[in-house]
Amino acid sequence: MNKTFDRTSSILFALIGALFVAESRNISTSAYGSEVGPNLFPMGLGIILILLSLRLFWETFRYRESVTSAVVFRHKRFLLMLLATVLYAWFLEDIGYVISTFFFLLAGFRLMGSASWWKSAAVALAFSGGVYAVYVHILKGTLPGFPTWLGL
Amino acid sequence: MEALQYLADGFTIALQWHNLVYAFVGVLIGTSVGVLPGIGPMSGVALLLPVTASLTNGLSPEQAAASALILLAGVYYGAMYGGSTTSILLNTPGESSSVVTTLDGYQMARQGRAGAALSIAAIGSFVAGIVALVALVFLAQPLSEVALTFGPAEYFSLMILGLCAVSGLGGKSMTKALIMTVFGLLLATIGIDNVSGVARFTYDIPDLYQGLEFLTIAVGLFALGEVFKTILEADGTEAQLIKVDRILPTKADLKRSAAPIARGSLLGFFIGLLPGAGATLASFFSYIVEKKVSRQPERFGKGAIEGVAAPESANNAASGGAMIPLLTLGIPGSGTTAILMGALLMYNVQPGPLLFSDHPQVAWGLIASMFIGNVMLLILNLPLVKVFAKIIETPPQYLIPLIIAISVFGVYAVQISTFDLMLLIACGVAGYLLAKNDFPLAPLVLGLVLGPMIENNMRRALTTSNGDFLIFLQKPLSAIFLACALLWLVVPMILKLRGRQVVVNEEA
């Protein structure tokens, strides 16, 4: 177990609980025909969350930190993949499904250690083109198409 | 024999050709998901949830719900079959409910009996699946009739019981499990309130008015969370696969495993019925039971076929048993069933006692398809076990980015919003961090699914009692449920205080 994470998260959860309690005071306290308003449930839960977080905080003083195992963390690879995913999601609507998915997969395959550009590009193209063709043309679903400035 | 009549109707639905295809695709993907280490039944079902939603686009809501559920349930029990393969061949469980199988399964494989171990696991899973289904057929109607007499107060307390049970067994720390439950319930309050129409915690952001989408959060937490974990922590060492030669078990093997399969099926089924106790716990207990009843307990851990047959039967029976509270009471007892419930709700089908009278197509079609699916799995698994073993060798450098791409496609196809994609990625990171630090994710999803129903029932009950909270204790049945809920939390705590080891359920 990781004390720093547990403490930080307990404080964070307590703050979330407090936020819900504070904000639920702005919600109307009664509904038409009922004495129980929409504020009661979130407020009660917020209070319980604060109490539980306090207990978790208290528990962090009572256990001994276990020795961390010898896992090698590959932070660089993870951050790059995360960045690629965020960019992919962000530009999906702007440059269309096929193009964005192709570039995301190509980057992803290479980041994860695929040795060949050609093989990566082929798999990426097959997936992005295949999904688009099946979903949009056969199943009549909606996905962002090609950007208009391409003139397709 | 009313149940048999309904079941026959169910078969006419399950035998429609498109539903047969859905069942086949479901069990095929399920087996693959079970075989691949890193993707468990929960992330598999979560990943496919949006995909099925877009596949069933053209069907009428009722048919779409039946077909989607047939596929997703196929993934669920297919994964239970597939999980044994890696346990036996690689000594790495494909999902948590196959952990015990490694003990004897891998030893058998090293002795050159890999084929026998794999096939006995498949046969055991099949028998257990059928046992659980027969029980489901005969219990479903009576149980849902009982549940029909429940009022809002009883429902509220029953759902609290379900949440407490899952939190009590939910992980290494009960406090953390409870925090996740309450957090899930709180997230469910975001959006327009169903009863009064008041917007809560939306801050005028249009994306929040509908509330946080269950599907986005489930896919993010489970599928992306697992993927991020693999990206960060995979060590890249290649494990050595053991070759499979002879597939069919010998007569002696069959004779020896008959009784363990029967015991495992029954035990697994009853454990599966309990909310919170799932397939992992079932396989664990059945292994212990077999070791206790065996005349030669020293053989366990050295390649005893009973040690493969019993837990593999138990985990499959448990996954069947877990369908009962979901379908009849509308209360999911585990993360995976919570996602199945989310799927039903997406199609506007409310699981619970009314499911069998309002949507018999969905309920009985699903049950009948599970019979067919189990037969398919047996046929698939015996001759094709070698092919499935090959799936383990799928290069991860291709698999990982493809899983991310499928998650993004699935969520976007259903939600058509960039906001949901960003939420998806955030949930993926959160899911990784939380799971890594022993915050169980299943209670959060459960809270998210049950939140609106708990709140509605609570408010309806309080409206009838003019705001008096004692109504939950005055109704006898409701009081019993609440007492059980309390016991479920207090008993493990007392056991822990007295220094006992408490078996906790890993997510499954």
Automatic annotation (TrEMBL), chain B:
- Renumbered to this chain, the signal peptide range is none
- Name the InterPro entries for this protein: DUF112_TM
Segments forming domain DUF112: 20-446
- TM region positions: 20-39, 116-140, 146-166, 178-199, 266-289, 326-349, 361-382, 402-433, 439-456, 477-495
Q: Which UniProt keywords apply?
A: Membrane, Transmembrane, Transmembrane helix
* Pfam families cross-referenced by the UniProt entry: TctA
Keyword Transmembrane helix assigned: yes
Coiled-coil segments: none
What is the protein name for this chain?
A: Transporter
Instruction: Tell me the organism.
Output: Brevibacillus aydinogluensis
What is this organism's lineage?
Bacteria, Bacillati, Bacillota, Bacilli, Bacillales
